[in-house]
Amino acid sequence: MTIEVETSDPVAHVLECFRLRGNSEYGKEAVSQLEHALQAAYSAEQANASPQLIAACLLHDVGHLLHDLPEDAPDHDIDDQHEQLGAAWLIEHFVPEVVEPIRLHVAAKRYLCAVDSEYFAVLSPPSVQSLHLQGGPMTESQAAHFEQHPHFAEAIQLRRYDDQAKIPNLKTPSLEHYVDHLSQSLLTRTTN
Ligand SMILES: [Fe+2]
To answer: How far is the CA of 192 from the centre of ligand 1 (A)?
Structure first.
C-alpha cells in the first residue's frame, strides 16, 4: 500500500505518514515505528540537540513507511535501503542537517561496529541481522573515509539515539510536539 497523502505541506505529509503507518512494527523490535521515532527524537531533545538533529531522529526511518516490502524482508535477505529511500524524499523538503545524518545512519552502524568493540553488544538481534545485509562492519579504510564526511558527527549521534529507541511503553512527547522542530528544518525556512 503506497500512501497517498493529499497535501503539499511536507510537515503535514510526515504527520500523515506516521498516522497512517506509524503503528506498524519496527522490524521485529518491541516498539512500533512511531514509538521508535518518538523515542529517538526524545533522546536527542533531552541531550539538547539542535532542532534539525531532533527532526532527523524523528524522521530517520521514514523510508520504512514509504515502501511496501513486508516487515520480515530481512528474513528473505532483502535490504529495504530505507535510508536512501527516506533521504531521496526528504531532500526535496528538508535542510541537509536533517537529510544527511539520515542517509548515513546505516553507514554509521557499520562504522561503529568497526571502531567500537562495545558497540556490537548494544545492537538488538534484528539490527545484527540487518547489519549483514547492509555490508557488515566497515573496513579500516572505509571507516577512515567515513570520518571525513561533513555530517559524520551528527550521523553518529543519530545512530546512538536510534539504538536506544527500542524500549517498550516508554513515555515520550506526542508527534505533535515535534511540529516546531520539523518546521524549523524545512529547506525554504532556512534559505530565505
Ligand atoms: Fe531506527
So the answer is: 31
